[in-house]
Amino acid sequence: MNYNPFSLENKTVLITGASSGIGSAVAIEFSKMGAAVVISGRNEKRLVETFRKLSPKDSHQYIVADLTTSEGLDLLVLTIPPIDGVVHCAGFLKKLPLKFIDEHAWNETLKINLIAPGLLSQKLIKTNKLKAESSVVFISSIASFVASIGNISYMASKGALNSFAKGMALEMAKKKIRVNIIEPALIKTNLSESALSESELATYLTKFPLGRFGYPEEVAYAAVFLISDASKWITGTSILIDGGVTLS
Questions:
Q1: Distance from C-alpha of 126 to C-alpha of 146, rounded to nearest angstrom
Q2: CA dist 140 to 73, 113, 132, 159, 176, Å?
Q3: Does residue 240 contact residue 205 with C-beta atoms inside 8 Å?
C-alpha cells in the first residue's frame, strides 16, 4: 500500500479560471494527483486546451461559464456534481493609476476578483454542492498587502478577498468546511507578462532573493496540499509563495 496524505484520489474538485495560467496548472496537477476535475472558464477554446492535458480524460468535465453573470453562476452550480473542494483561480489585472480609475474599472476588477468567487461560494453552500469536510481555496496575491504603482483596484480586490475568505472560514467551520488562501508574488503567466513591460519585469526580478519569478505549477502544489487531507486541521490561513520578495 502506497501511503500518500497528499493524494486527491476519490475527490471531485471544481477549478475556476482554468482556461489559462494558474487555473490551468492547478487543473493539470490535480488530475495527476488523482482528482476528478471540473474546470470552468469563459474562453471555450483555451478551456478545451486545458481539458486535453488532463489525465485520464474520462473522469473530468469542462463547463464554459461567465461567472460575472448570474446566468453563468447558475449554469455552473446546477451542472456540477457534489464536490469535495473548489479552487477559485479566475482573476483580472489591469494597471491603472488612481486618477484614471472610473466606476467601470472598479466594477470590472471587483466583479471578477471578489464578487464572482464570493457569490459562487455562497451558491455552492446553499445548494449543498460543497460537501461537508470539503476544502475551499482562494488564489489571492501579495498585492493584498504590498503596494505598487498602478495596482490600487487590484490590491483592494485581493485585500477584500482575503477578508471574505477568513469570514467564510469562521462561518463554515461548523460544517468542517475549510477555507484558505494562497498569496503568490509574480507568477509567469500571460496575465502577469501582459500587465508589465520587459523593463518593468527585469527591474522587479532583481528584488527576488531566489532569483526568479514563480511558475504556475508551484501555486498548484500549494493548492494540492490545501485540498488534500494533509491539511485537515488548517483553516482561515494564508500560504505565501513569493520567492522571498517580501523579506525586505
A1: 34
A2: 20, 9, 24, 8, 22
A3: no
As a whole number of angstroms, the distance between CA 193 and CA 113 comes to 18
Q: Catalytic residue positions? A: 154
Which residue matches cell numbers 496575465?
A: 191
Query: Which H/E stretch holds residue 87?
Result: strand 83-88
Q: Where are the domains of the chain?
A: 12-237
What three-state secondary structure class fits 14? Answer: strand
**pLDDT tens, residue by residue, 134-148:** 999 999 999 999 999
Residues 64 and 69: their CA atoms lie apart, in Å, by 12
State how far the Cα of 7 lies from the Cα of 192, in Å rounded to an integer. 30
Segment 88-135, tens digit of pLDDT: 999 998 889 999 999 999 999 999 999 999 999 999 999 999 999 999
Tell me how far the alpha carbon of residue 163 is from its chain's centroid: 15
> Is 130 strand, coil or helix?
strand
| Domain 12-237: CATH architecture, name and number where available | 3-Layer(aba) Sandwich (3.40)
Phi, psi (deg, nearest 5) at residue 39: -110, 145
Closest CA to 74 of 84, 63, 85, 90: 63
* Backbone phi, psi, residue 100, to 5°: -105, 0
pTM as predicted: 0.95
